[in-house]
Amino acid sequence: MRLELDPAPSLGKVALAYAAFLLLALFLLALLFLAYGVSPWRAFAVFLSPLTDPLGLSEVARRAIPLLLIGAGLAFAFRVGFFNIGAEGQLLLGAVGGAYAALFLPPGPWTLFLMFLLGGLLGALWGGVAAWLKVRFGASEILTTLMQNYLAYYLVVYLVAGPWKGQLVFGFLYTDRFPPWAHLPRLGDTLVHWPTLLLGVGAALALQVLLFRTPLGFALRVLGENPAAARYLGLPVGRLLLWVGGVSGALAGLAGVGEVAGIHHRLLEPAQISLGYGFTAILAAWLARGRPLWVLLTAFLLGLVLAGGDALKLAFSMPFRVVDVVSGLFLLALIGAEALSRHRVIWRR
Amino acid sequence: MEEALLRAVLFGTPILLASLGALLAERSGVVHLGVEGVMALSALAAFALALETSPLLGLLAGMGVGVLGGVALGVFAVTLRANQFVAGLSLAALGLGASGLLGKRYEGLPLANPLPEGGLALLALGLALLLHLLLYRTRFGLYLRSVGENPKAADLFGVNVEGVRYGALALGGGLIGLAGAYLSLAYRPSWTDGMTGGLGWVAIALVILAAWEPLRAVFGAYLFGLLFFLQFRLQGSVPIPSEAFATMPYLLVILVLALSGRTRAPKALGVPFERGR
Amino acid sequence: MRRVLTLLLALGLGFAQGDKLKACFIYVGPVGDAGWTYAHDLGRKKAEAALPWLETRYVESVPEAQALPVIDRFVREGCQVIFATSFGYGEAVLEAAKKYPNVIFAHATGVKRAPNVATYMADFYQVYYLNGLAAGALSKTGKVGYVAAFPIPEVKRHINAFALGVRAVNPKAQVLVRWINAWYDPAKAREATEALLAQGADVFAFTEDTPTVIQTAARKGAYSFGHYTPMLKFAPDHVVSGQIVHWEVIYIDFLKKVKEGVYTPKNLQNVDYFWLLQHGAVEMGADYGVPINPKHVPLLQKAKLAVGGKEVAVYDRIMTLLKDMQSPKPTFDPFTGPIRDRKGVVRIPAGKKASLEELLTMEWAAPGVVGDWPGEPK
């Protein structure tokens, strides 16, 4: 038995592949819950429970905000063949930029704008460095961006433990609280900082239009499909890549500003800021198949996985790792289904 | 100074083993981003079995889990031709998660008879040499490299591309499992959730620093171990923030990439093999 | 769809109601095997076992950003008392306290209170001093190692108390400090210990959530003191004593008073537990009920120190002070002046005891402490 490419899979076959893999994942999860002494039905109900009330929905939305911003940028970048997996670091740099504007520039009604500006610029710089290394030296961006994540991480540790450490934090690793000008408005008494959400929706729309409705977008897609052809056509490949790296980095940077200005109101330990959003957003982008607009859907789907996982560990006092297991299994099921639906099984050699 | 070199070797060993495993997979064209998760699960399996039987069986169990992890990745990355990066990341999450869920009852237990770190460090060194010979002096190594560079040509010459990739993933997985077992049976020796502490990602980075050469991985791993130790040894006696030491290995990787990025990586790295395409 | 989900939820959850008091715990890390969160969870379990009318729930590894949503859920599920067990939850707790004025909150290591927010802490500084005495007596090289988590006042206070103890026995001894900037990181704890061993330290104390320092020290035959939970089993020949916490003492007292109506969501503004040896909230011990590992008692009996001009065995001194500080009205306190910091500045004048405020904001370093000290006052 072996697999062969299926150029035109029927809709029924695709549906069947997805159904089969998702059922398999659900079955494995059910086994896991049973082993843990929890009824699978109850567990699934709790997992979906964020969808049933405003509180849960706001939690899904809050988680989806950074995933949307970063995911839209990454879907765009992946489409152009720039495999930026450094969103985690770009988000942190954005948070650093935002924190600088909030803490050290004169406060006023312009503060939030300056925070987003500076955070976005630093994010763009961090993404741009990887693009530059690729263009200038041919260094794989997958690896440079991964390394840059660590540099950003230690930069934040250095700042909050050293020069930026707050006076009013009892020696803990925080900066002082941002002044009120630097706080993003939230929806009611939830943590949904809606301006960042709007930015995310706007970014997804704008990138979708750019990619599929403009000559520049066409050039970028050619570059993504076939770099050699792009060069042959005389496209400014280097400039385009720098641009793409900058844009995806900037969006991750904006997400970082959103987290510190909307939720934390200070710079703090890096792991507490990024919470793995940079990596989860890769999955959001991948699920969106290089269409920034689709991230509107996938970011909220993954937001649900995160919020539902939280609900699970809380409802049953389960170890926090249950979130990892649930998301890991679902993702494997999704990519398995995707791969299978593109192929047909040949039973003889 | 002696002490520093010893620490470089003993803390470098788990990183070396894991990166040798990742390296083997990558030479065959498959990126194994699941290292962190597989290592975590291996560490648990090794510890659990060591506690209930013997450390040597534990070591084997750890390797066994590593092999299974490699094969699991193979199902997605080789057979199904799914996106290797996403499959690897999912596997990492799944492994970490499963180890945390399954391992609760093994937390807080001392291991009466741990394995000697020195012996395992020598073993790791020997394995690096062996891997070098395997890659450059054996038929399998030739197949493996050709599959990683040009699977189409290899296929035309009758090499079973999928079989070789599964072999590399299984063998590499065994090494990754050994790294996990080293942590829970020798380095700690006990088990807690999250004890791999990001070493799996370091190992993946190291593959690049080593330019996909097993012997260079030895130096890279030891260098990382040395810098990690020095951040504590020199803390307070040099006016350099410890974060600067911590970033050095990653800066080095970027530097190496910039200096040699264009040529080294296996050409088919990360690309699923489709016959007739 | 939504109806179906609600139905599933109602079927699935069916929360046990009744006249049980529901207390819910927010943990900052995984329960793990030995550290901070593990100790809180042990306290939770013991409280639940001791109080038949108590029902508890917990959720582990809650990042700071998620504290508020977690509290939202806990309140919705009927939690009447919520324990937030990390400093970083402070702002979320105060915000939630306003949102839910009828829920009682208690914030561990917290500093800000409200009508429905109490703060609590079980502190080790007395125990650290006693362990310091033993460490000073046991060190042959005169170098004692301390692997420290974060340079915050709590940890600094503990190191200082420990160093004062060490110096009381051996006035020339040094306490070498290494910061690992992590509460849980076995690899950093291991390598920091190795670094200190390489510099000649032969006795160890630490703040980290695993027994790694103890295991590492024992390989080289160095003594060590456990932290948070009994760690004797990890190195039976080398653990001398340690700091053990009994959060259940605070939890049981607090919850009883809630049940009896002494504590209400209106009167907690001044409720602050800073519980010590005399309350039984902490214990000196290699294991429960084993203040000093019997294997090391003879050595500590042989070692002497001068107290008020008289030679006293270190072991006897430890036991006398322990008994005193466990009594309802202790007369001894490690932070009794005159105490200068390592730069010679008088920090506690002669005859004075450090106030609670001074303990909670301690930034100076005691004499004998060697190493980086972020935030050290000029």
Automatic annotation (TrEMBL), chain A:
It is found in: Cell membrane. GO terms for molecular function: transmembrane transporter activity. GO terms for cellular component: plasma membrane. Its main location: membrane. It is a multi-pass membrane protein. Pfam families: BPD_transp_2. It comes from the Bacteria. The keyword Protein biosynthesis does not apply. The chain crosses the membrane at residues 64-82, 112-133, 153-174, 194-212, 240-258, 270-288, 295-316, 322-340. The keyword Disulfide bond does not apply. Keywords: Cell membrane, Membrane, Sugar transport, Transmembrane, Transmembrane helix, Transport. This is Simple sugar transport system permease protein.
TrEMBL record, chain B:
The chain crosses the membrane at residues 6-25, 30-50, 56-78, 85-106, 118-136, 166-185, 191-210, 217-234, 240-259. It is a multi-pass membrane protein. Keywords: Cell membrane, Membrane, Transmembrane, Transmembrane helix. The keyword Acetylation does not apply. It is found in: Cell membrane. Pfam families: BPD_transp_2 (PF02653). It comes from the Bacteria. CDD domains: TM_PBP1_transp_TpRbsC_like. InterPro entries: ABC_transp_permease. GO terms for molecular function: transmembrane transporter activity. Its main location: membrane. GO terms for cellular component: plasma membrane. This is Nucleoside ABC transporter membrane protein. It comes from Thermus arciformis.
UniProtKB/TrEMBL annotation, chain C:
InterPro entries: ABC-Purine-Binding, Peripla_BP_I, PnrA-like. Keywords: Signal, Sugar transport, Transport. Residues 21-285 form the ABC transporter substrate-binding protein PnrA-like domain. GO terms for cellular component: plasma membrane. Pfam families: Bmp (PF02608). PANTHER family: ABC TRANSPORTER SUBSTRATE-BINDING PROTEIN (PTHR43208). This is Simple sugar transport system substrate-binding protein. It comes from Thermus arciformis.
